[in-house]
Amino acid sequence: MKTENVKTKEQRGSTAYKAHQEPLIRMVKRDDVSRQRTIVVRAAAILGALLVGGVLILFMGHNPILVYAEMVRGSLGSALVIRDTVRIAIPLVITGLGIGLAFKMRFWNIGAEGQIIAGATAASYFALFWADALPSPVLLLVMALAAIIAGGAWGLIPAIFKARWNTNETLFTLMLNYVALEGIRYLQF
User: Fold this and answer.
1) Where are the alpha helices (DSSP H) in 5-34?
2) How far apart are CA 25 and CA 23, in angstroms?
């Protein structure tokens, strides 16, 4: 015989029962937030991050204002530095856009680093061994295609395992980052 756990009126009204039903903090997307409020919240988040970072920098014994100024100077201080900043930022931005698609589909791919390494390895192969055989524009196109195919194939590995054996794609993609890094070490030495 199945017995039901029926709560009395006093138990349902108690704080302990309510705390069990509703989480302490609940995050939900709010569609009714104005554009101005969104801007204020984001600005407050950036300011808060700078303040917390400043406190940590201060605890390490440095002047936060000088450290932040040096960070800006080091990333935007001259034309050469700006070019280097853009060169480093472009792969990260493109990777973020690609990962955004996976996150939108509720696949938690944290293996973007491994996919970048696989793509860079494939592109480097053509840059090293086909540079004399192909004209530069064709070589760049071949390198881009090789990088896309290799990075996609690297991302396909956890997708196949997820579809076939329902593996955890978060752990799988994370571990593949280390496999890709070891592959680079192997090729270096």
Assistant:
1) 9-13, 15-21
2) 5
